[in-house]
């Protein structure tokens, strides 16, 4: 956990003095070292009996105030080590890639300062043993994401995107904080062990409130309806940032939180249903929006929102292992897709419009092959990793509700379609870019991470194959963490096989439909409506109803309340005092005879008062 922080501090102090690649090399090495230590920790847990795979240790006392006692400590169990392994592993590859991608940026060392801090904050989040320390990591990834998304702050769109991410996430944070307050008020503790051991003492209403409030926090951080708009604009940052945020960190924090509080969600079946429907509707809405985007990264941004919706579908139906499985495989292929998109942008000299590309497969073969492998994985085509992980989520949805499964199945077809559309427009068909543009393949430092991620995208499904219990490695690893909260499968083997076959058919339908429409054409207005290109108009609605109305209200308070009411009242008091002073100051004439007269009159008045009182 501390290694990325050390790398960030070192580059903050000395990065600008080093020659160009070394700041990036140092930043990459500390994350690689973190991954190596995570592997050692995983092996240590693996060597323990399944029911005892927990390291819970305290570093020092942090807060002691009244009944509140919090320590800075680490809680290492199969769930947190799974998160740490893929966070550090994928982040290390993105760091290496960034050495090439950001090689010509003037603030090269500053970029790696922020990148290391981002990984440090994420590790704090997943390693903490209490809700408060987790919240520090939660806010840490929020702050560093602002710096990274707005890294090219001289671009108005990037600066605005950074602010949007920061502000929208504060809405979700309100839910997280309020849930913490309720927990402490009712249980007197915020440590995971004590809370989860005592949550059964809470009233049903309180448990529901806490579960919903934590979900509000997760909706903000993991970009679900209605707070997903920030993630779409987050791609304004450098492409490695997009890969890091969308694949390995931050947006997965909300899913992790929901998995961590599974003992609370287990007591609230209705909240689980709410989570499932919000997730699957988000998945569908985002997938539809992705079908009409023209920015190569914006297609992927909406895709991330959609895939996160699948993860929440898994959480809501009690399929926690399936949700984590999808989170891990999604990290593989979504990091590959974003880094592949960055390679295309790099090779096309900053062009991002897929309608102005075409036939890049021959000019950038390594990028094309790896990108296509990622596409087949996210499309859910067997035997790629996405087929197995998404299949588990959809099987759980089918077991819970046919409606959930139908919406999820439609979204699966859309996923294969919109990613196929992007692949065909970028790598196939006719060249639609300026012939003077010298397209080139990316350097090896950018391609090596693509090769590694492509391999993981292909074989990642081996983590949890449904062939037999022996091959369900991830399920066997994580089941003790979730215990009774984990929904038990009631689907027969033949039904599961049929569902798996259907998943493969859905992928083929989407791929085939995309081929028929886009392999020979780059313009299909009928299937690219403007309202989908604008993300269903949701962001525009927020802008008109909330942002602009808030601006007008602020202007009203500035021009009317501040000037006419507040300043007017202040100036009226001042004028009144001035007017009073105008007449009172006439008493101060400066003549001694006048003052003697006033004293005499005063003395007579006092004397008359006492005489009158004595007579009474």
Provide an overview of this structure:
- It is globular and about 115 Å long.
- The chain is mostly helical and 616 residues long.
- The protein has 25 helices and two strands.
- The chain has a two-stranded antiparallel sheet with strand order 1-2.
- It folds into three domains: 267 residues, no CATH class; 266 residues, no CATH class; 70 residues, no CATH class.
- Strand 1 and strand 2 form a beta hairpin.
- The chain starts with a helix and ends with a helix.
Tags for this entry?
616 residues, mainly alpha, 3 domains, two-stranded antiparallel ribbon, 73% helix, 3% strand, globular
Q: Would you spell out the secondary-structure blueprint of this structure?
A:
Elements: H1 2-14, H2 20-46, E1 55-65, E2 68-76, H3 78-101, H4 108-127, H5 131-149, H6 156-187, H7 192-198, H8 204-221, H9 229-233, H10 239-248, H11 251-260, H12 262-265, H13 269-290, H14 296-316, H15 320-347, H16 360-363, H17 365-378, H18 385-400, H19 402-427, H20 444-459, H21 473-482, H22 493-518, H23 530-533, H24 538-584, H25 592-615
Antiparallel strand pairs: 1-2
């Amino acid at each position: 956990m501390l290694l990325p922080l050390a790398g960030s501090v070192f580059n903050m102090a000395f990065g600008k003095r080093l020659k160009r690649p070394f700041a990036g090399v140092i930043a990459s090495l500390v994350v690689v070292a973190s991954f190596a230590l995570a592997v050692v920790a995983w092996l240590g847990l693996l060597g323990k009996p399944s029911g005892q795979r927990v390291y819970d240790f305290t570093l020092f006392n942090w807060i002691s105030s009244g009944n509140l006692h919090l320590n800075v400590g680490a809680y290492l169990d199969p769930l947190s080590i799974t998160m740490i392994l893929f966070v550090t592993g994928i982040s290390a590859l993105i760091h290496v890639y960034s050495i090439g991608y950001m090689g010509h940026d003037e603030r090269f060392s500053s970029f790696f300062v922020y990148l290391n801090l981002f990984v440090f904050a994420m590790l704090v989040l997943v390693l903490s043993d209490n809700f408060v320390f987790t919240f520090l990591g939660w806010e840490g990834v929020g702050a560093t994401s602002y710096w990274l998304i707005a890294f090219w702050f001289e671009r108005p769109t990037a600066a605005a995107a950074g602010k949007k991410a920061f502000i929208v996430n504060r809405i979700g944070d309100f839910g997280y904080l309020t849930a913490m307050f309720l927990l402490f008020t009712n249980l007197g503790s915020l440590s995971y062990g004590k809370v989860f051991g005592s949550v059964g003492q809470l009233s049903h209403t309180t448990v529901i409130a806490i579960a919903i409030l934590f979900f509000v926090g997760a909706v903000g951080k993991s970009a679900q309806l209605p707070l997903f708009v920030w993630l779409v604009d987050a791609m304004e940052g450098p492409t490695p940032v997009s890969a890091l945020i969308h694949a390995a960190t931050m947006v997965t924090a909300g899913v992790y939180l929901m998995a961590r509080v599974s003992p609370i969600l287990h007591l609230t079946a209705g909240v689980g249903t709410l989570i499932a429907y919000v997730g699957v509707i988000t998945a569908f809405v985002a997938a539809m929006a992705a079908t009409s985007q023209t920015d190569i990264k914006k297609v992927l941004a909406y895709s991330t929102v959609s895939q996160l919706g699948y993860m929440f579908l898994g959480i809501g139906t009690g399929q926690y292992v399936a949700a984590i499985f999808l989170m891990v495989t999604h990290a593989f292929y979504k990091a590959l897709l974003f880094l592949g998109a960055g390679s295309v942008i790099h090779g096309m000299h900053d062009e991002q419009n897929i309608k102005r590309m075409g036939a890049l497969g021959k000019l950038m073969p390594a990028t094309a092959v790896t990108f296509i492998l990622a596409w087949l994985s996210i499309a859910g085509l067997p035997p790629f990793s996405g087929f197995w992980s998404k299949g588990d989520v959809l099987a759980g949805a089918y077991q819970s509700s046919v409606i959930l499964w139908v919406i999820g199945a439609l979204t699966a077809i859309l996923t294969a379609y919109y990613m196929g559309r992007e692949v065909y427009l970028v790598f196939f068909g006719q060249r639609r870019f300026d012939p003077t543009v010298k397209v080139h393949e990316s350097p090896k430092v950018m391609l090596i991470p693509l090769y590694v991620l492509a391999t993981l995208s292909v074989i990642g499904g081996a983590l949890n194959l449904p062939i037999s219990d022996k091959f369900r490695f991830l399920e066997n690893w994580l089941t003790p963490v979730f215990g009774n909260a984990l929904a038990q499968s009631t689907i027969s083997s033949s039904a599961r096989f049929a569902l798996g076959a259907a998943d493969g058919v859905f992928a083929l339908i989407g791929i085939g439909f995309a081929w028929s429409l886009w392999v020979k054409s780059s313009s299909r207005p009928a299937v690219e409506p403007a309202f989908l290109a604008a993300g269903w108009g949701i962001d525009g609605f927020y802008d008109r109803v909330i942002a602009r109305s808030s601006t007008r209200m602020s202007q009203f308070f500035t021009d009317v309340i501040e000037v006419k009411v507040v300043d007017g009242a202040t100036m009226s008091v001042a004028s009144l005092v001035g007017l009073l002073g105008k007449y009172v100051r006439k008493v101060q004439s400066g003549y001694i005879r006048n003052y003697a007269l006033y004293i005499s009159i005063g003395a007579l008045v006092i004397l008359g008062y006492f005489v009158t009182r004595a007579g009474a």
